[in-house]
Design a protein that fits this description.
There is one protein chain. With 143 residues, the chain is mainly α. The protein has one domain (9-138). The protein has helices at 9-32, 35-38, 46-70, 75-79, 94-109, 113-116, 127-132, and strands spanning 82-86, 134-138.
C-alpha cells in the first residue's frame, strides 16, 4: 500500500475556501428559518441569539460530519483532490469529527498559527491534525 502524501497548506486553503462558500449557503438557509420568529428583523434577544448560534454550530458539525464520516471528503476537498482520514487510514467517526472541529477552532483562534504549523511540521500536520489524530492527504490522480 503506498504511503499517503500529506496535503499542502495551499491545497487545504483552497478546499477551505470552496467549503466556506457552501457553508455560508447552509448558514443562510438555517438563519432564514429563524426569520418568521423575528418578523424578518435581525436575530435579537439573548435566547433566540443563543439558539441561532447553537443551530449554526450544529449545521457546521453536521456539514463536516456527514462528508467526513461517509467519504472522507467535502465537496471542496474533492475538488482539490484531498481526503481526511484517521492516523490508521480509516474513516473518521462522529467523535473524530467533533474533536477535529474543536481543535481546528483552536488553530484559528491562535491567529491561524495552528494551520501555518504545517509549514514547519516534519509530517506536514496542523495542530488540529495532531490533536485529533487525523491527517489530510492528497488523492492520486485517476488514470
Amino acid at each position: 500500500m503506498p504511503v499517503p502524501v500529506p496535503a499542502s497548506l495551499l491545497r487545504r486553503l483552497g478546499a477551505m475556501f470552496y467549503d466556506s462558500m457552501l457553508l455560508v449557503a447552509v448558514f443562510l438557509i438555517g438563519t432564514a428559518l429563524f426569520l418568521p420568529f423575528t418578523h424578518g428583523e435581525a436575530i435579537g434577544g439573548a435566547l433566540l441569539r443563543g439558539l441561532h448560534r447553537l443551530t449554526l454550530l450544529a449545521l457546521t458539525t453536521g456539514f463536516y460530519g456527514l462528508f467526513w464520516t461517509r467519504s472522507g471528503q467535502t465537496l471542496g476537498m474533492a475538488a482539490w483532490r484531498l481526503r481526511i482520514e484517521r492516523e490508521d487510514g480509516g474513516r473518521l467517526t462522529w467523535r473524530d469529527t467533533v474533536v477535529r472541529l474543536a481543535a481546528a477552532t483552536l488553530s484559528l483562534i491562535a491567529l491561524g498559527i495552528g494551520f501555518l504549523w504545517i509549514l514547519f511540521d516534519p509530517d506536514d500536520l496542523a495542530w488540529h491534525d495532531r490533536l485529533s489524530r487525523t491527517r489530510v492527504v492528497l488523492v492520486p490522480k485517476r488514470k
